[in-house]
Specification:
By secondary structure, the protein is mainly β. It has no helices and 15 strands. Strand 1 and strand 2 form a beta hairpin. The N terminus and C terminus are likely disordered.
Length: about 160
């Protein structure tokens, strides 16, 4: 296996593994007492969770991995939505969710993402009202743009 590391002057890193480029991009955020809340999928009907919605867009179709990390010990939970996210209807447009697939209480979502399609990654927690910092590492065959978005009204449309 041949491994090379290339850094660009844009906010992503590209690794060359076995004649394939793998793009790595990182997004960092914080869930705080002022973050919006919602009733997350599989979270219980009366338990609210802080969340951050992250607009995610790919420019090359392929299988991408979205993995969380936390240096503050935050037990993350991630949900991926297609097109839009409505915190009052957490199952609408839901593609998948993961809790601890990344090990160490971190989520890992690996899915085929279509070229030019916009998704919303909702970063939340396994326990209600938990707060702390986190990072998302996106990897795949092309670059991924990630931008924090805030709810405007009920539904976040992209």
């Amino acid at each position: 296996m041949r491994l090379s590391h290339i850094e660009f002057r844009v906010p992503f890193t590209c690794i060359f593994i076995d004649n394939l480029f793998v793009f790595l991009e990182t997004f960092s955020g914080t869930l705080s007492l002022s973050s919006p809340t919602f009733y997350r999928p599989s979270g219980g009907s009366y338990l609210s969770y802080y969340y951050q919605a992250v607009q995610t867009r790919t420019y090359i179709g392929g299988t991408y991995t979205l993995r969380s990390t936390s240096s503050t010990g935050l037990d993350t939970y991630g949900c991926l939505y297609s097109t839009s996210f409505d915190p009052t209807y957490p199952y609408k447009n839901l593609v998948t969710c993961d809790d601890d697939g990344g090990g160490n209480l971190q989520f890992l979502i690996s899915r085929y993402l279509s070229s030019g399609q916009t998704y919303v990654l909702v970063v939340t927690t396994s326990s209600p009202h938990a707060i702390g910092s986190y990072s998302i590492i996106a990897s795949g065959p092309g670059s991924v743009s990630m931008l924090a978005i805030s709810p405007s009204g009920k539904e976040i449309n992209i």
